[in-house]
Amino acid sequence: MEFPEQVEPTLRQFRYFIAAANAGQISQAAIDINVSQSAITNAIKSLEEMIGSALFERHANGVSLTYEGNLFLDHARHVVASVEEAIRLPRRIREDVRGSLNLAVSYTVAGYFIPTHLARFSRAFPNVKVNMVESDRGPIEEGLITGGFDLAVMLTSNIANHEELSHETLLRSRRRLWLSANHRFLQQPSASLQEISAEPYIMLTVDEASNTAQRYWKKTPYRPNTIFRTSSVEAVRSMVAIGMGVAILSDMVYRPWSLEGRRVEVMPVSEPVPTMDVGFAWSIGTELNEAAKAFVEFLHLAMGVDQH
Amino acid sequence: MEFPEQVEPTLRQFRYFIAAANAGQISQAAIDINVSQSAITNAIKSLEEMIGSALFERHANGVSLTYEGNLFLDHARHVVASVEEAIRLPRRIREDVRGSLNLAVSYTVAGYFIPTHLARFSRAFPNVKVNMVESDRGPIEEGLITGGFDLAVMLTSNIANHEELSHETLLRSRRRLWLSANHRFLQQPSASLQEISAEPYIMLTVDEASNTAQRYWKKTPYRPNTIFRTSSVEAVRSMVAIGMGVAILSDMVYRPWSLEGRRVEVMPVSEPVPTMDVGFAWSIGTELNEAAKAFVEFLHLAMGVDQH
DNA sequence: GATATCTATCTGAAAAACAGATAAATGGTA
DNA sequence: TACCATTTATCTGTTTTTCAGATAGATATC
Question: Which domain holds residue A117?
Answer without folding.
Answer: 99-172+277-307
